[in-house]
Design brief:
It comes from Electrophorus electricus (Electric eel). By secondary structure, this protein is an alpha+beta fold. The protein contains 45 helices and 43 strands.
Length: 1156
C-alpha cells in the first residue's frame, strides 16, 4: 500500500470555502488511488544530474579539452585568372599600379603578399599572416586586383535581418568568407532584392549562403499573441521562471515585452509545432488568471489624486499594506484610478477608495485664476512669505506655474470656504500689482547729463552720498541722483508720490526716465519732475500749428527729417500727433533758445513743403561724412546758412550709408548740391604730403596697434598716415588722402607732438600693498584716471613682501634701506603734461584705502556677521557705489579675542558713511535685545489636566486662537513632567496676563459643567451617531454638550455620558431618549421581518459556524513518509521562504537542496 501524507494548515480555509456545499459535507473516506502524488503536486525544479564518478570525471573533462598548440600564422594562395585580372600589362609585372596596390594592401591589413605569374598568364598570390589579416587581405585583393561582377538574390523581406545578424556581425562574416560586397535594402525600402558584387566564384558562394539562411528561416514560424499587460507577470513568473520553463519544454523562443514598454503583444518564434505548443500554454495561463484577476477603475477628479495618495503616500500605503496583491495606478490628467488584482481584493480596495473620494469631494474644492506671469514672484513674496501665509491662513494649496511655462493659470485647492477666501485675496493682490505697475516716460535732455555727472563723476558721487537708500550695488541711477543740484525736491517727489523712478543705463542712447507706480501717482510725479527740469534748465514748451497733411513729409522716412532737426537744435523733443487724428498742433519742448530755433526750422520747412519743396540726393563715402559735417557741425552749417537748404546725413541704423539728402527750394537745393559735390570732389582728389616727426614720438602714434592713427583716419576722411619702419632713424612721415583732410590731419598731429614735447615724468609714492586696490577690477580705475587726465601711468614690478620685511635674500641678511628713500616697488610713474600729472597724482592718492576703528559691544558681533556672513556682506554691499568694486571692507575680530573693536577699511570719502551705517545697525540690534527681554516674560497657571484637551480644542483650534490674539507662546506639560497641571505662558507681560485670563475664563466655564450617565439601547447608537458622526455633532452643537458613547467590549454597552451645563444636559438627555424611542420602533420592526426570511446560501456556508474536522490537502508518496524526517512546517520561512527574502543556512532535508 502506498504511503499517504496529510498537510493541515489554516491557509487552506480559502480552498475549502471555494468547494460546493455537497463537496464539503460529503463522505469523509479518501480514495487513495485518486489522490495526487507528491511529485505531481510539487514538481521538482530542473537540475543537472550529479556525476557518479565524482572528481575523477572532472579530471577527464579537463584532459579531454587539451589540444595541441597550433601556429597563429597561416598561409593561403589565391589565383586570379587572366580574364579577371584588372592589370594585364605583362611588361609591368611587379611594377606600376599593381605593385602599389599590393604594397597598400600589406600596409592596411598587416599580411604579407607574394605575387607570381602562372603559365596561363593568371596571377597567383600567396598571403601569409594571422587569420583575420589574411581574410581582410583576400577581400582587398578581390576588390582591387580582380574585375568585379554583380548579381542579385531575392529572399523574403523578413529574412533580411537574419542575413545581417546581430550588430551586422553575420553580414561582415559573409563578406569576408566570400570576398564580396553585399548590399541589403534599408527597412523602409519595399524591395526584397539583395545586391552582391565581387568575383564570379564569390558571387556563387554568397548567393548560396544567403539562400541557405532564408531556407532555414522558412522552416520557422512566428506567432503574435495579444494579452493584456496586467497578465504578463503571471506569464513570466517570478524572476522569469515560468516563461523559462515554457521555452525549455517547447523549444520555442518567447519574447514578453518588459514592464517599461507599453505593448501587449507577446511574440513566439520557433518550429511550427513548438510555436503552437507554446501559444497553447500561454493562453492556458492567461485563461486561468483572467478568471481570478480583475481590472477595475474608480472615478476621481485628477486634482484630487495627490490628496488620495496622501503625504509621502501615507494614505495609499495603508490600503496596499492590507491588500498587497492589488496594484493601484494613477494616470496624470485622467479623472480615474485604475485597480488591478484578485477579484475579492479589488472589491474591498475599490470600496475604500470610493469612500475616500466621496469624502474629499464633499469637503474639498478648487478654483483657478489668471494672473500675468510677471506678477507671480510678487505673489509668492520674498522666500515664499506671501504664498505661505495664504496657505496657512486659509488651509489651502496654491500652485503657481514655474517661470519657464509662461502660464497665467494659478490653481487653488482645499476647503471650499478657504479656497474662495484665498482666491479673493490673490485677485486683490494681483489687481493692486496691475494698478501699481503703470509706467510713464519723461524725457531728460542729454546736454545736461555731462554737467549733472560732473568731472570724473564728482557730482554724481556727491548725490550718491546724499541718497544712501537709493544707491545699491550695480543698479541704474535713480532720478534723485540725476539732479544733484536739487535732491530734496526729487526725494520728496519719490516719497510723496510713492513711485519708482529709473534712468536709462549709462551706455544707452535713450533719454527717457521711466516712472512706475499707480497711474495717478505716475502722472503727478511726471508733472512735478518736468516742472523742476523746466525751472532748473530753462525748459520751455511751445505748440506750432502745421497742417496735418504735411506731418508725414516733415517726419521723413523712419523719422529722418525730424530727427535731424532735434539733433541740430540741441536735442529738443518734437512731438507730432497720432497719424489720422486730424490735429494740426505740433509740440516742441526743450531749452528756450533751442526750441525757438527748432520752431523756425519747422515752420520754414512747412512753408517750403507747401510752396515749392524740392529734394535731391547725392552720394559720398561714409568716411567723408565727418569731414563734410565738420567739427561741431561747422562745415555743414556754413553750407546751410549760405544756401538755405537742409542737408540730412544717414544715421547708423540706415542701410545706405552713402546717401545724403538735400531738402529745400529748387534753387537752394541746386546750390547746396553744387557746394557739396565740390567738397566731395576735393576729397576724392587724393594728394600726398610729408611732415617731419621726431623718432622718439613714433611709438606713441603706432602703439596699441596704431589706435591713434585709426582715430585720426576716422576723424579726417580716411587719411592714410605712414611712419618709417621700426629701427629706422628717419623722421619722414607720409600722409595720403584728400587735400583738406590731409591738412587737417597734419594740423592735429602737430598738436599731439606739441603735447608730447611738453610731457613731464612724475613719481607718486604709494605702498605696494595698496596698488591692487587702486587699480580696481581689471584695472578699471586706472583706465578711468588715464582717460580723464590724458596721462600714462606705470606701476612697478611686484616684490616679495616677506623678503622686504625681513631683509633676507638667498640666506644673507641685508642692511635695512634708509627710511627716507622710497622703495622701488612703491613708486608709480606718471607721464604727461605737468598740470595733468599733478591732477592724476591727487586722484591716485584719493584711491588709497584707510582704516578706522569702531567700538561695538562684543555680544552684538554675531548678529552683525549674520548667518554664514550674510549680514556683514549685506552691509558692505550697501556701502558700495554704482559701478564700483569693494569700496568698503568691514573686519570683525575673532571670537577668541573678545574684542569690542571692529575695523572698517576703504576710501576716506566712504568711511564716514560706513561708520554711520554700522552704528545705526548697532542701535537696531540693541533695540531688538531690549524687545527680546520684554518678550521673555513668563508666568504659569494651574489647570486640572482633565481640562487641557478642552483648552487645546479640536486640532488645536482654541489654543492657536489664544496664541494669535495675544501674541504669546503657550506651553502645555509633557507626559513625563512632574507638574502635569502647570501651563506656561511666555510673551510681553500685558499679553501674557491677557492670555492667562482667557484660559482661566475657559476653565471657569468648564468647572460649571456636570456629567450624567444615561442608558440608551446599543442598537440605536449608530443611528444617533450618524454617517461620519454627522448626527452626534449636530446634537453637541445644538445643546452645547459633549457626548461619549461606550467603546466595543465595554462592560455596559448601553451607557452614554452627557457633559455640559446643567440645563443643557437635561435638554440633551430628553432629546436622546426621544430619539431612542423613535429608533427602537424601527429596530423591533426590522427584527420581526428578519425572523420570517429564509436563510441565505452565504449564511449556510459561513465559515464561522462549527464544521467537521478538516483533513487539509492530501498527497501520496511524500518524502517525509519514507524517512525519519518530519513534515515541513508551513509557517517556517526556511521551508517556505518568500520571494526575495534572505534564507538562513539549514541542514539538508528530503526536499533536496534549496535553490533561492
Amino acid at each position: 500500500m502506498s504511503s499517504v501524507a496529510v498537510l493541515t494548515q489554516e491557509s487552506f480555509n480559502e480552498h475549502r470555502s471555494g468547494l460546493l456545499p455537497e463537496q464539503v459535507g460529503g463522505d469523509d473516506s479518501v480514495d487513495e488511488d485518486n489522490l495526487p502524488t507528491y511529485k505531481d503536486a510539487f514538481p521538482p525544479l530542473p537540475e543537472k544530474a550529479a556525476s557518479p564518478e565524482g572528481p575523477q570525471e572532472v579530471g577527464n573533462v579537463w584532459m579531454s579539452k587539451i589540444r595541441p598548440l597550433k601556429s597563429s600564422i597561416i598561409t593561403q594562395v589565391f589565383h586570379v585568372p587572366l580574364e579577371e585580372r584588372k592589370y594585364k600589362d605583362m611588361n609591368q609585372f611587379g611594377e606600376g599600379d599593381q605593385a602599389k596596390v599590393c604594397v597598400d594592401i600589406m600596409h592596411k591589413t598587416g599580411a604579407h603578399l607574394e605575387l607570381s605569374m602562372a603559365k596561363d598568364q593568371g596571377l597567383s598570390i600567396m598571403v601569409s599572416g594571422k587569420l583575420d589579416a589574411v581574410m581582410k587581405a583576400r577581400k582587398e585583393i578581390v576588390s582591387r586586383l580582380q574585375t568585379q561582377a554583380s548579381a542579385t538574390v531575392a529572399i523574403p523581406k523578413e529574412h533580411h535581418r537574419f542575413v545581417i545578424g546581430k550588430n551586422g556581425e553575420k553580414l561582415q562574416e559573409l563578406e569576408l568568407k566570400t570576398a564580396t560586397k553585399i548590399q541589403i535594402p534599408r527597412p523602409d525600402d519595399p524591395s526584397n532584392h539583395i545586391k552582391i558584387s565581387g568575383t564570379k566564384e564569390g558571387l556563387e558562394k554568397a548567393k548560396h549562403e544567403i539562400l541557405l539562411i532564408s531556407a532555414e528561416q522558412d522552416k520557422r514560424a512566428v506567432e503574435r499573441v495579444n494579452i493584456d499587460k496586467v497578465y504578463h507577470p503571471f506569464i513570466t513568473g517570478a524572476y522569469g521562471k515560468v516563461v523559462s520553463e515554457m521555452m525549455q519544454e517547447t523549444g520555442a523562443r518567447i519574447n514578453v515585452p518588459p514592464p517599461s514598454v507599453n505593448k501587449t503583444e507577446i511574440v513566439i518564434t520557433g518550429e511550427k509545432e513548438q510555436v503552437a505548443l507554446a501559444v497553447a500554454m500561454i493562453k492556458k495561463v492567461y485563461e486561468e488568471k483572467a478568471n481570478s484577476y480583475t481590472v477595475s477603475s474608480v472615478s476621481a477628479p485628477s486634482w484630487l489624486h495627490r490628496f488620495i495618495i496622501g503625504k509621502k503616500g501615507q494614505n495609499l500605503a495603508k490600503i496596499t499594506q492590507q491588500m498587497p496583491k492589488v496594484h493601484i495606478e494613477f494616470t496624470e490628467g485622467e479623472d480615474k484610478i485604475t485597480l488591478e488584482g484578485p477579484t475579492k481584493d479589488i472589491q474591498i480596495v475599490q470600496s475604500q477608495i470610493e469612500a475616500i473620494v466621496s469624502d474629499l469631494v464633499s469637503r474639498m474644492d478648487y478654483a483657478e485664476i489668471c494672473v500675468d506671469p510677471k506678477f507671480h514672484r510678487h505673489l509668492i513674496g520674498k522666500g515664499g512669505a506671501n504664498i505661505n501665509r495664504i496657505k496657512d491662513q486659509y488651509k489651502v494649496s496654491v500652485r503657481i506655474p514655474p517661470d519657464n511655462e509662461k502660464s497665467t493659470l494659478i490653481r487653488i485647492e482645499g476647503d471650499p470656504q478657504g479656497v474662495q477666501e484665498a482666491k479673493k485675496e490673490l485677485l486683490e493682490l494681483a489687481s493692486r500689482m496691475v494698478e501699481n505697475s503703470y509706467s510713464v516716460s519723461v524725457p531728460i535732455f542729454k546736454q545736461f547729463h555731462k554737467n549733472i555727472i560732473g568731472k570724473g563723476g564728482a557730482n554724481i558721487k556727491k548725490v550718491s552720498r546724499w541718497f544712501l537708500g537709493v544707491c545699491t550695488k550695480r543698479v541704474k541711477w535713480m532720478v534723485s541722483d540725476l539732479f544733484y543740484f536739487s535732491p530734496p525736491h526729487l526725494f520728496q517727489i519719490r516719497e510723496e508720490t510713492n513711485t519708482k523712478i529709473d534712468l536709462p543705463a549709462e551706455n544707452s542712447n535713450s533719454e527717457m526716465i521711466i516712472i512706475t507706480g499707480k497711474k495717478a501717482n505716475c502722472e503727478a510725479a511726471r508733472t512735478r519732475i518736468l516742472a523742476i527740469q523746466k525751472e532748473l534748465a530753462n525748459i520751455t514748451e511751445v505748440e506750432v500749428s502745421i497742417p496735418s497733411k504735411l506731418h508725414n513729409s516733415l517726419i521723413g522716412s523712419k523719422g529722418r527729417f525730424v530727427r535731424s532737426i532735434m539733433e541740430e537744435c540741441g536735442g529738443v523733443h518734437i512731438h507730432f500727433p497720432t497719424e489720422g487724428s486730424g490735429i494740426d498742433s505740433v509740440t516742441i519742448r526743450g531749452p528756450a533758445e533751442e526750441v525757438e530755433k527748432a520752431k523756425k526750422q519747422l515752420l520754414s520747412l512747412a512753408v517750403e513743403k507747401q510752396t515749392k519743396s524740392h529734394t535731391a540726393e547725392l552720394r559720398a563715402k561714409p568716411e567723408y561724412h565727418k569731414f563734410l559735417i565738420g567739427k561741431g557741425g561747422g562745415n555743414i552749417r556754413k553750407v546751410r546758412d549760405s544756401t538755405g537748404a537742409r542737408i540730412i546725413f544717414p544715421t547708423a541704423e540706415d542701410k545706405d550709408q552713402e546717401l545724403i539728402t538735400v531738402i529745400g527750394t529748387e534753387e537752394a537745393v541746386a546750390e547746396a548740391r553744387k557746394e557739396l559735390e565740390g567738397l566731395i570732389k576735393s576729397l576724392d582728389n587724393v594728394v600726398e604730403d610729408i611732415m617731419s616727426v621726431d623718432p622718439k614720438h613714433h611709438r606713441y602714434f603706432v602703439a596699441r596697434r596704431g589706435q591713434v592713427l585709426r582715430d585720426i583716419a576716422d576723424e579726417y576722411g580716411g587719411v592714410m598716415v605712414s611712419f618709417p619702419r621700426t629701427g629706422s632713424q628717419s623722421d619722414r612721415v607720409t600722409l595720403k588722402g584728400a587735400k583738406d583732410c590731409v591738412e587737417a590731419a597734419k594740423k592735429r598731429m602737430l598738436e599731439i607732438i606739441e603735447d608730447l614735447d611738453a610731457q613731464v615724468t612724475m613719481e607718486c609714492v604709494i605702498p605696494q600693498k595698496f596698488h591692487r586696490s587702486i587699480m580696481g577690477p581689471k584695472g578699471a580705475r586706472i583706465q578711468q584716471i588715464t582717460r580723464d587726465h590724458n596721462v600714462q601711468i606705470k606701476f612697478p614690478e611686484r616684490e616679495d613682501l616677506q623678503v622686504q620685511e625681513n631683509g633676507e635674500a638667498n640666506g644673507e641678511i641685508k642692511d635695512p634701506a634708509e627710511p627716507v628713500a622710497p622703495k622701488k616697488c612703491d613708486v608709480i610713474v606718471l607721464s604727461g603734461r605737468k598740470e595733468r600729472c599733478t591732477a592724476a597724482v591727487e586722484a591716485l592718492k584719493a584711491l588709497v584705502p584707510v582704516t578706522i576703528e569702531v567700538e561695538v559691544p562684543f555680544e552684538l558681533h554675531r548678529y552683525i556677521i549674520g548667518q554664514k556672513g550674510s549680514g556683514i556682506r549685506k552691509m558692505m554691499d550697501e556701502f558700495e557705489y554704482p559701478n564700483e568694486f569693494h569700496e568698503v571692507n568691514i573686519q570683525v575680530p575673532a571670537p577668541e579675542l573678545q574684542s569690542d573693536i571692529i575695523s572698517i577699511t576703504g576710501l576716506a570719502t566712504h568711511l564716514d558713511r560706513a561708520k554711520g551705517g554700522l552704528l545705526e545697525r548697532v542701535k537696531e540690534l540693541q533695540a531688538e535685545q531690549e524687545d527680546r527681554a520684554l518678550r521673555s516674560f513668563r508666568l504659569t497657571i494651574t489647570v486640572d489636566p482633565k481640562y487641557h484637551p478642552k483648552i487645546i480644542g479640536r486640532k488645536g483650534a482654541i489654543i492657536t486662537q489664544i496664541r494669535t490674539d495675544h501674541d504669546v507662546n503657550i506651553q502645555f506639560p509633557e507626559k513625563n513632567d512632574e507638574n502635569q497641571d502647570q501651563i506656561t505662558i511666555t510673551g510681553y507681560e500685558q499679553n501674557a496676563i491677557a492670555a492667562r485670563d482667557s484660559i482661566q475664563a475657559i476653565v471657569d466655564e468648564l468647572e460649571e459643567m456636570i456629567s450624567e450617565d444615561i442608558t440608551l439601547d446599543s442598537r440605536v447608537h449608530a443611528r444617533i451617531i450618524g454617517a461620519r458622526g454627522k448626527g452626534i455633532r449636530k446634537i453637541m452643537d445644538e445643546f452645547k454638550v459633549d457626548l461619549r458613547f461606550p467603546q466595543s467590549g465595554a462592560a455596559d454597552p448601553n451607557l452614554v455620558t452627557v457633559t455640559g451645563r446643567p440645563e443643557m444636559v437635561d435638554e440633551a438627555i430628553d432629546h436622546l431618549l426621544n430619539l431612542e424611542e423613535e429608533y427602537m420602533a424601527d429596530v423591533v420592526e426590522n427584527e420581526s421581518k428578519i425572523a420570517y426570511m429564509k436563510p441565505s446560501v452565504s449564511a449556510a456556508a459561513n465559515p464561522d459556524e462549527p464544521r467537521g474536522p478538516s483533513k487539509g490537502f492530501v498527497v501520496r508518496e511524500a518524502p517525509w513518509t519514507t524517512s525519519s524526517e518530519k513534515a515541513p512546517d508551513m509557517t517556517s520561512s526556511e521551508d517556505f521562504p518568500s520571494f526575495g527574502a534572505p534564507v538562513t543556512a539549514a541542514k539538508a532535508s528530503p526536499w533536496g537542496p534549496k535553490r533561492f
